[in-house]
Amino acid sequence: MPYLAVIAVAFTLTFLAELPDKSMFASLVLGTRYRPSWVWAGVAAAFTVHMGIAVTAGQLLALLPDRVVEAVVAGLFVAGSAYMWATSLRPQEHANPDAARQGERTPSFLRVAGMSFTVIFLAEWGDITQVTAANLAARYDPLLVFTGATLGLWTAAAIAVSVGAKSLDLIPMVWVRRITAAILLALGVYTAVVAITG
Q1: Cβ neighbour number for residue 194 with a 10 Å cutoff
Q2: Is the pTM of this model over 0.85?
Q3: How far is CA 151 from CA 1, 30, 83, 114, 174, in A?
Q4: Which of these, 6, 12, 5, 4, lies nearest to 140 by C-alpha position?
Q5: 17-57, pLDDT tens digit by residue?
Q6: 83: left (phi over 0), alpha (psi -120 to 50) or beta
Q7: DSSP H/E element including 192
Q8: What are the backbone angles phi and psi of residue 94, rounded to the nearest 5°?
């Protein structure tokens, strides 16, 4: 796959998968309470660390024989697809931005960025975006996957902290989850065919 295509696939999958995710809502709520650029700095740093971990895990997976890797990656893509589809069937929950507006003390950049980093870093473990990046890194150039996935997460975080809670009524999260599920399923089927045909 060409370099830009790998970056584009990693970007698209992680961006779409992150939109309905708990981390996006946490970023959104933090962005309604604190200066958005400060929140984004902490969130972006946490996403960068997580993508580094995911790509490393993918490279460890790539040490296995090719057919085993292809089979595992196909299974994980299909499992990710099933997860995204199942979550699209759940009732949507909206963050309450007014609940986050407590206290008037103006915190420092380090406090806001550190808190944002910690919230996202803890929330992202085992997230579908991390699993997807690991799968892609097992198959494609890890630096390209890291670049695309990190940019996708940064973009989702930028939207979350800048747009605010008012837009949640306009974004059909069910369809975002279903589109992501379809893309993951297509990648899973493709990878399974590659694993079977060699």
Answers
A1: 16
A2: no
A3: 19, 20, 23, 20, 23
A4: 6
A5: 887 777 777 787 777 777 888 999 999 999 999 899 988 88
A6: alpha
A7: helix 173-197
A8: -110, 140
